Amino acid sequence: MKKIKIFFQASFATAKKDIISILRYKTWFISVLVWPILMPYTFVFLAKGLAGPTNEGIDNFARLSGTTDYSSFIILGNLTWMFLNMIMWDGGLKLNSSRRIGILDTLWTAPSPRLAYVFGSAISSIVINFSPIVISTAFFSMVKIISFKANIFDLLIYTLSILPFIIGFLFIFSSLTLRSKEANLVVHAVRVILSILCGLQLPIGVLPLFLQKISLSIPITLYMNCIRDSIIKGQGISYHINSLIYILTIGFITFIASIVVFKLTEKKVKNKGLISGY
Question: How much of the chain exceeds pLDDT 70, in percent?
Fold first, then answer.
């Protein structure tokens, strides 16, 4: 019980430090308020251009995506892509960033759970980068660009269900980038793959059949489908109960596996002397 208490104390201390570090600069509102509102417009205008002068491309889009509301479809997907992109840079590269600025040795050899440092960074990254999604969705709903028909409670359940997978993903990602000398390359590769396979910026119907099968096995794809169907079509949880169970199952498996991967990384760091304290 005492170890659990120490773990969460260290985690929340790390999260608090990260949040304060970001909010101390006056330009924080640009990434939280301005960028999430301006950036999706680029894709909406592009979609209008591709739809053709008489919207003749809408029928084809509806066949591939299941909806004619391309604005909501594209904006929701790109906001999620922005969220995943930012947490990979902030949370996923936290250990690598700490090593680059020269504080990883101190953190790694401190008498506190090392996983708590990564967990705290994941919490702060999720909190900071999820806020713009909420703000942007509310803005586009108010200006009638997004047709918002969802139950807030349903959206909250979907979001909570994907957290074990995201946190587990960040644990694994942190471990891999700590070992890699070219961590930035890993981030660029992963974010492009997720963007394509998870249908964040395009309907997965445009992918080859074998890629569609892979896409539907990724929890982020199913989460995105749940969010879009809930907001655009007003579908409740009963329509996606199987997807919800799958997301939770894979999420907890990923979370447990990520802890194992992190522990293996700890052993390698100690055995290989990757930290000066060893």
Answer: 90
Residues 6+ apart with CB under 8 A from 83: 129, 130, 132, 133
Cα of 215 vs its chain's centroid, Å: 16
When pLDDT is averaged across residues 228-256 and rounded to a whole number, the result is: 91
Could you give the angle at which helices 241-272 and 114-142 cross, rounded to 10 degrees? 140
- Nearest CA to 173 out of 187, 159, 189 is that of 187
Mind spelling out the 3-state secondary structure of 127-141? HHHHHHHHHHHHHHH
- The secondary structure of the chain as a DSSP string is -HHHHHHHHHHHHHHHHHHHHHHTSTTHHIIIIIHHHHHHHHHHHHHHHHH-TT-TTHHHHHHHHS-S-HHHHHHHHHHHHHHHHHHIIIIITHHHHHHHHT-HHHHHTSSS-HHHHHHHHHHHHHHHHHHHHHHHHHHHHHTTSS-----HHHHHHHHHHHHHHHHHHHHHHHHHHHH-S-HHHHHHHHHHHHHHHTTSSS-GGGS-HHHHHHHTTSHHHHHHHHHHIIIII---GGGGHHHHHHHHHHHHHHHHHHHHHHHHHHHHHHHHT-STT-
Structure tokens at 43: 């894709």
Measured between alpha carbons, how far is 95 from 108 in angstroms, rounded to an integer?
Answer: 9
Residue extents of the structural domains in the chain = 2-272
Structure tokens at 189: 């590769």
> What is the C-alpha to C-alpha distance for residues 171 and 8, in angstroms, rounded to an integer?
16
Residue 57 scores a pLDDT above 90: no
End-to-end CA distance of the chain: 29
pTM: 0.85
